[in-house]
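Dear U.,

For the methods section draft, I wanted the exact inputs and outputs in one place so we can describe them consistently. I've listed the two proteins in the order they'll appear in the manuscript figures. Please don't edit the token lines directly; just add comments below if something needs changing.

First protein:
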Amino acid sequence: GTEGGDTPLLSVIVPVYRTPEPLLRAALDSILAGEVKDLELICVDDCPGGESSPVLAEYQARDPRVRLLTNDRNRGVSHSRNRGLAAARGAWLAFQDSDDAVLPDGYATLIAFAEKHNLDAVRGLARLPRETKEMTIHGIPAGEWRVASTTEGPEEALRSIVPWFSWTVWGGVCRRESVAHLRFLERVARYEDSAFVAEMLLRPLRVGCLNRYFLTVYQHADSLSRTEPKPRSYVEYAIAARRIARLMEQGKETIAPVILRFYAWRCLHILFSDRRGHNAPLTRRQRRAFCVAARDICRVLHPHLPARLRLPLFLLITAPRLLFMPGNLLWNAIKWGMTR
């Protein structure tokens, strides 16, 4: 149960996998001690029997607002978030990593802001522990805000708002009814956040952002963002980008052009920017999968990108195997067009 009964104000979903105990306790305490008392904290244990399991059991026994879901084995962050999403009952929904800490008034401020402006989703500012200065992000000075509709703008506000949402699923709150039917890609270990948020934004919604710090992001040594991708990760990147491209195609008649242009660049970034793990050669099957996906994606992106990228994208659509010809000339031409 919760203090508010069967339908709490807020559901916070926290997937947990081998999080150092001090960081895990700090994360859970920050949520439970916050100004939003009418909440449920859904912890999904993705390493049953691991070092985090006793801590989660302790919090569940100590506070009735804590709900503990345990996977039968390690299934990944997307599966854990999907379980939490399916179990959530709150009017508002937030995702938080198990090594991050929210300020006491963080979620309360975001929910109040969203209700005041009748928003479906709102994002705030997260920062690393060592960052102390106020920041201006995407043209929004510290303390200021923007709101807009994904279908009709205004375009200037959307240009400022959409980048706040693009990288991660944590960092804000959204109405549960607006995302309850969405799911994370469980085959993808990176950019699954981007695909999920794209599925949310490439539909009619009212969204906003508030340039106010409310979340501290800690990245411990085992964080996925600190591990080097493997060559097969590029096939997963293509899966995530293809999902976004399909959503763009479905929403091209209703969604504001500025959002479509943003996600066209986002798909190119997912496909071609991260080459850290591309030292070992892809297998023939992996190359074919990547090429087929890249061709399909670029057919969708082509109308939304500047002229300097049209020739390399046309070559990619016509002969995608050119991506892996000696010298990677086509790949480098696309990257050059992205950085101009």
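Second protein (the one for the lower panel):
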Amino acid sequence: MNKRVTQDDIIYFIVTDRFFGRSKRTVDTSDTSIHGGTLDGILEKLDYLIELGVTTIWVTPVYENIQNLDTSEPYHYYWPLNFEQMDGRLLDGTRLPDSVDKRTFGKFVDLCEAAGMKVVLDMVVNHSGYGAQGEFDATWFNIGGSGDIKGQLAGLPDFNHDNPEVLDFFINNIEDWISKGKVTNIRMDTVKHVEPKFWHYFKSQIRGEYPDVCLIGEVLFEGKEDIGKLLQYQNYHDFDSIFDFPLCTALRSTLIYDGSLRYWLARPRLNDEEPLGVLDNDNPLKNGYRNANRLVTLLDNHDLDRRIMSHARTKHSGADAGLDWAIRVTKLCLGALLTLRGIPQIYYGTEVGLEGWKAGDDRDLRRDFPWHVIGDDHHPRQKFRKELEIYEWTRDLISLRKGHTALRYGSTITLWSDDVVYAFLRIATDDVALVIINNGYTRMPNPIQLNLDMSIIPQRVADMIAGGLKHWKTGQALMVQNGKVPLTVDGKTIDIFCSDGSG
């Protein structure tokens, strides 16, 4: 088993405390205490994740955290007190040793990998928990910080990585988690708040000794105008991957809130003056990402404004028809996520339409997973219509992606882009997929004619398309007439046509 995250993977992000544990409490979403989700609990629910089809789980930090504050507990475990050991509150003794030694996390990794599941560990180097300065040398912290992105984050004590003692501590600490905790994939928190010198030491020492460790950076720049700042972390700081927040913004702005597809995603290439969409920045020869196919793509997470289903309900409120439209556009977003380039990340509960909002703090974004809707067969129960429909759609899309090299590795070629319609090809060596999105609210009145232009499409690919792509759900054969593909697509719908027998 390749333990490193690759383009073959679908990542499932879990806020451990909110997922499952034998003694976990179910409480109101306004509650900021620790609810009792554990790593043991994740192991107990691996069959659910395997049935869904995800291949990798990303878990929030496991360091020993500070104890209760007056207003909140560190249920998310991003407020470290001691970087050298685990927090005992993340263990319930049912499947893992109760020792807080790093080797216990290594046991967790072993059990996940034995079930065919890779693990990404969330790491923090930027800050300690509130009130934890006394556990470290006073000279280790920034006083006021410097520059636009330094200084305290939400008032958390901010480490100064220009201090060689701080650099040395964290490089050795990470190496210890790799060797004892068997960490092979790291999601690094709050990357843009860490002094750049740290990444030089990381790629010199950690990269040198552990070249197979995958580093995924959280650099929270969300706008398409921010891509120039975002890509430097992949291009210059040697991150394997970063989160594609601009694409997340683009998908939400278009598929939920009806923005122009050609403005946000990809220009139609009619002239050089058109504004670039997010996908137009994928070319490294034009100052784009080093490898856009290695970006981690997402629809929502634990820090953004709200979950994707809550965005959909904001746009489409009310019962019955409003809920139907919300389900429809959520499925459309998932369809785009799992057919576009990148490594898809699903936030726990998104596959069953879990909602959540940021309202002053993040607690509602991190609701408890609704295990009451899941039956013994690891599927939502029939009486939960919304949850079942979104779950089955997500599971089927994951299966489709895993079955087609074009969707995992393929190059992307835009065939059509206007305000409402986006069509593209994904092309691999022996596989091709054609994807078309109608972002309008009604069925196309007339077929759109997609031109298989030989100036951008190799002849063998055109032959594969003409030889018979089939609709992923209905099995309907794709028609090709005089070098053009006529298609009529329903409103707020994604249609996917794939070749047979792909790997």
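Candidate sentences for the figure legend, describing the second protein: DSSP finds 14 helices and 17 strands in the chain. The first strand starts at residue 11 and ends at 14.

Thanks,
Y.
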